[in-house]
Amino acid sequence: MRQGHRSAPWWLLAGTALSAAALATGCKSVTTSKKDPMAYFVPSNQRVWSPDQAVLPTADIGRDEVLVRNVRNCKYLSADDYVVDYYDRLIALGDLVSVDYIVVPFQAMPTMAHTMVSFGTRDGQQIVVSVEIRKEAGESYSVVKGLLNEFEIMYVVADERDVIDLRARHRGDDVYVYPLRANPEQAQAIFVDMVRRANQLAERPEFYNTVSNNCTTSLLLHFNRIAKRPISAADPRVILPGLSDQLLYELGLIDTNVSFEETKRRANVSPLARQHRDNPDYSQAIRANWYLRRQ
User: Fold this and answer.
1) What global pTM score does this model have?
2) Strand partners, 154
3) C-alpha closest to that of 76 among 170, 9, 181
C-alpha cells in the first residue's frame, strides 16, 4: 500500500509565522482534488482515508480494565510502502505503570515536531497514543493546510515499533523518548483520559488546527492531570512543539537532575531503534540506555 504521508493577538502572529516558515521550507501540499466547499466547514469521519488512518480506535472503558479496539500495527518496507494490521488489546489498568513523552523534530524546521506518548505495562510492553492529522488518500502534512480546515484530527493507538520505526529508520528522524515523572495512578488516569477522547472523536469529528488543536496542545491537556500547575496552551513552546520537551523540563515533568541538553542527549533512541528494528523485544531494546530503563 502507498502512504501519502483562543486567543491573544500573538497567536495570530504565530500562525502567520508558521505559514511563512512552512512555505520557506517547501512543505508538501495536498495532492488530491479540491474538496467539496462544505468540507471546509463540517468535519467528517466519512472520507476516502489513507489506508494507515482508515480505521479509528475506540475503547470500552471499565472500572479496572480497558479494551482498546483497532490498535494499529503497520509493518513498513519503506516510508511509503507498508502493510496495515489492527488488533484489539485488553489492558488491565493496574498493569499500566509508566508514561513516556516522545518528540520527533521536523528535519527542515526543528522547532516544529510531532509528539506522542507511550504507556508502559508491568510486563515491559508499550502502547503508543499519537494525535495526528487524519489524511485522505494522497494527502501529506502541511503546516499551512493545517490552518485551513484541510485535515480532521484523530488519535492513533499503535504498537511502539509502528510509530518509531517509521520515523527513526525510514524517515531518518531523531526520536526522543522522555520518561515522565508520573506514578502508576497518574499514568492510568492519562491513558483513560486519552482513550475517552478517542471515543469522542469517533462520534464527533473535529478539524485539526496547526496552532490550536494539534498533537501537542492535545497531549498537554491530558498532562495537566499530573502537572503541579496547569500547562498553558498559549505557551510558545506548545505552539512550537519542537521546544515542548524544554517546557516539560522546566515544569519538572521530565528528568532535571542534569542539564536539559544532557537530558535530551540521553533521550535520543534513534540509533538503537535502527539497530534493533527486528528485535522481538523492541521497546526494551531501544531503552537499553540506563536513562530509559524502568526503575
Assistant:
1) 0.85
2) 132
3) 170
d(CA 161, CA 175): 12
Lookup result for grid cell 490550536: 212
Quick one: which of 202, 163, 188 has its CA closest to 59? 202
Answer yes or no: are the C-beta atoms of 137 and 49 closer than 8 Å. Answer: yes
Domain ranges in the chain are: 9-292
Say which residue, 293 or 19, is predicted with more confidence.
Answer: 293
User: What count of residues does the chain have?
Assistant: 295
The per-residue pLDDT for range 13-44, each reduced to its tens digit, is: 344 344 433 333 333 333 333 456 666 689 99
* CA dihedral (231, 18, 200, 49) positive or negative: negative
Q: How much of the chain exceeds pLDDT 70, in percent?
A: 85
Tens digit of each residue's pLDDT (9 = 90 or more) over 186-201? 999 999 999 999 999 9
